[in-house]
């Protein structure tokens, strides 16, 4: 399960199927240097993305 406390690059490394979700939300996290240390919750806040919707979408992608 993906949580807001997880580091973005860890999410992508463990679940590459989430890349399409990050792109859907216009988050180019896979290209961002800060993603190595930034939590999902912080990244969502900085980019003004609804965290709960993002979490739902990411976890749905992992379940498929």
Describe this structure in words.
There is one protein chain. With 64 residues, the protein is mostly helical. The chain has one domain. The chain has 4 helices and no strands. The mean pLDDT is 94.
What's a concise summary of this model?
This protein is 52% helix and 0% strand. With 64 residues, it is mainly alpha-helical.
Count all strands and give the number. 0
List the quaternary state of the chains. single chain
Beta-strand portion reads under 5%
> Helical proportion?
40-55%
State the helix count.
Answer: 4
Q: Spell the H/E element sequence.
A: HHHH
Shape label: globular
The biggest beta sheet is recorded as: none
Q: Give the C-alpha Rg.
A: 10 Å
Q: Extract low-pLDDT stretches.
A: none
Which structural class should the secondary elements be placed in? mainly alpha
Report mean pLDDT, rounded to a whole number: 94
Number of domains: 1
Please describe the structure with a list of short key phrases separated by commas or semicolons.
single chain; 64 residues; mainly alpha; 4 helices
Sequence-ordered SSE layout with sheet pairings:
Elements: H1 8-14, H2 19-24, H3 40-46, H4 51-63
């Amino acid at each position: 399960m993906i949580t807001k406390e997880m580091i973005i690059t860890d999410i992508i490394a463990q679940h590459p199927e989430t890349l399409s979700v990050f792109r859907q939300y216009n988050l180019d996290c896979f290209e961002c240097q800060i993603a190595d240390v930034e939590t999902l919750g912080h990244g969502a806040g900085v980019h003004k993305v609804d965290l709960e919707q993002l979490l739902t979408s990411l976890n749905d992608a992992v379940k498929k």
